[in-house]
Amino acid sequence: MKNFSSFRFLAIFFTIGATVLFLANSSGPAANNNFFTGAPSAGGGMESTCSTCHNSGSFGEPQLAITFSDENGDEANPTSYRPGQTYTVTVAVGHTMTAPAATGFQSQILDASNNVAGVMGSPGAGVQISSGPAGSGRQYAEHSTPNADSTFTFEWTAPEAGAGEVKMYVVGNLVNRAAGTSGDNGSTSPTILTFEEGTPVSTRNPGFSETRLFPNPADSPVSLSVRPDVAGDYTLRVLDIAGRELNRNSLRLTAGNETIAVPTTSLQPGIYLVELSGENGRLLERLLVR
């Protein structure tokens, strides 16, 4: 009788644990400190994939199709990137057998040193940009809710010239939307896209002859040095990695050299975006606050 009671307790314990894990990851694994892209992990070793928990369904292996389009809406070369170019990334998660009730995904883009490459932002419906392990500076694009439409989008601004080869790691998940992870199928290995560095965009920040954000990484007051091509009214914004506005200032700039104080005193350590925009130009810079 005692052994039966112990077994029953353990069964209930593991059922509750699986349900809690499912509910957490249904709103995005990285948002809940779970990282499953199959990429080299920030602390060494390799991340696991979704199939660690989601492996007993009848949907088959998730089939992933990833496309990139540039700012003009033209599909980009899938084997190289242009430094400074902003791309819209579309991740489609398909199935080979029974149709799932919903799908999810997680992705990150790393350079050859396994550091974050470029900046993710502007998530589409059902997508969020989440931070990686504390102090790693990593970003993850992932579902914010299981998506019945199976298609997810976000933007990626490629790193500056000199970053070299980058790799995108993507995994998908096919779920039945029942409590727990039973009956689902996650990627057993990541889909890996490798991009060589291509020719930089001709104008990194249209409307500005020179730009410099310093210090970066920052643990002291931050300044933005710019030379607008045209004098006028501009707006300085500080955004989080999901594109949410944290601070906004209106400025009147001349066509000469300008140095602008960037408000960072209230920012916690992490990755942010600094945007300066006006009628005649726009720049977007990545800032790492330590």
Q: What is the CA-atom radius of gyration, in angstroms?
A: 22 Å
CATH fold name of the largest domain: Immunoglobulin-like
Q: What class would the helix/strand composition place it in?
A: mainly beta
Tally of helical runs = 1
Distance between the termini: 56 Å
The total of beta strands comes to: 18
Total individual domains: 2
Shape: elongated
Classify the helix fraction into a percent range. Answer: under 10%
Please tell me the overall pLDDT.
Answer: 86
Q: How much of the polypeptide forms β-strand, as a percent range?
A: 35-45%
Please provide the ordered H/E string of secondary-structure elements.
HEEEEEEEEEEEEEEEEEE
Q: What's the CATH architecture of the largest domain? A: Sandwich
List unreliable stretches of 5+ residues. Answer: 1-24
Tell me what you see in this structure.
It comes from Neolewinella agarilytica. With 290 residues, the protein is mainly beta. The protein has 2 domains: 23-197, Immunoglobulin-like (Sandwich), CATH 2.60.40.680; 208-289, Macroglobulin (MG2) domain (Immunoglobulin-like), CATH 2.60.40.1930. Helices cover 8% and strands 42% of the residues. It has 1 helix and 18 strands. The protein is elongated and about 65 Å long.
Give the arrangement of secondary structure elements.
Layout: H1 2-25, E1 63-69, E2 80-81, E3 86-94, E4 102-111, E5 119-121, E6 127-131, E7 139-143, E8 151-157, E9 166-175, E10 185-186, E11 191-197, E12 208-214, E13 222-228, E14 232-240, E15 245-253, E16 258-262, E17 270-278, E18 281-289
Parallel strand pairs: 2-11
Antiparallel strand pairs: 1-3, 3-8, 4-7, 4-9, 5-8, 6-7, 9-10, 9-11, 12-13, 13-16, 14-15, 14-17, 17-18
